[in-house]
Amino acid sequence: MAPTVLIVGATGNTGFSLTETLPALLKSSKALSNHRIIALTRSADSPAAQKLAKVPGVEVVEKNWVDITADWLREHQVVRAFVASHNEPNQFAEESTFYMAALAAGVKYAVRISTTAANVRPDCKAYYARTHWAIENLLSQPEFSALQWTSLQPNVFSSFLLMSAAELIKEYRKTGNQHVLKLLAAKDAPVGVIDASEVGVFAAHLLAQDDVSAHNQAKYVLNGPEDITGKQIVELVEQYIGVKVDEVSYQDNSFIDMLYEMKYAATGQSKNVILSIKHALETSWEGKCSASTTSKEVLEIAAPKLTAADVLESLLD
Hints:
Layout: E1 4-8, H1 15-27, E2 36-41, H2 47-52, E3 58-62, H3 70-75, E4 78-83, H4 91-105, E5 109-113, H5 127-139, E6 148-154, H6 158-175, E7 181-182, H7 196-207, E8 218-222, H8 230-241, E9 248-249, H9 255-264, H10 271-275, H11 282-285, H12 296-302, H13 308-315
Parallel strand pairs: 1-2, 1-4, 2-3, 4-5, 5-6, 6-8, 7-9
Helix pairs in contact: 1-7, 4-5, 6-8, 6-13
């Protein structure tokens, strides 16, 4: 069996583009051309998984990543891994357990998806950002020195910020009516939104490096090529619908209350913890997530190209 690159979250918003990109990069590598790729999915019957199964050099395996053990990693000869974890309250327990298994199995390198760089700190009010800080802190300890790693900190995914704009445009085209445009963005604060697929492409380039030592314990900030403000999002919407937007609600994260009621209320999980997500975008409202924060390595290796306007157009297809 050949040495393996494992992709956890292969059908997700970052993992899919990574899985599509990686085979060609490995094929052109001197050190990694004999490596195979396992794309992990919880459902091999999903459209995304079936599409990835057609990519030459990719083997789709149905397995829940949180059940992976050191024995499983050894059996499949995993030497490098990509991890796009969930952000549920038990994230630290499950993601750290994976790295414990990886360390025991002799995995050499892992690339993981973190969150908004300005939030990855011990005093962030949003619980899951503290989790990412804790994971990075864990991996930085001497006990984990045998496992090299890189953490990717994309500031804000463009589809997340633009989804409500796309929904209003679709509604107007269909009915001629407008609902209140609820934007997560602040009116005037610039945000360097990035398309999730371009984060995956950058991750693929890291996983395909012959020598990853230069990226060990690095935390790379990723943004798109340019900033956008809430006001500019409104202007984009108006270009599509041909009239003024009737009403805009900026810095609107009211959907989180609905998320709690629909997904978490019946689970018994802490409402206080879940609702702390409301604080996650505060750093972007403060102007701390502009394109100027992008790490130079990102620009040198695989500079993102998709603008907010490009992504909005794709959301309308």
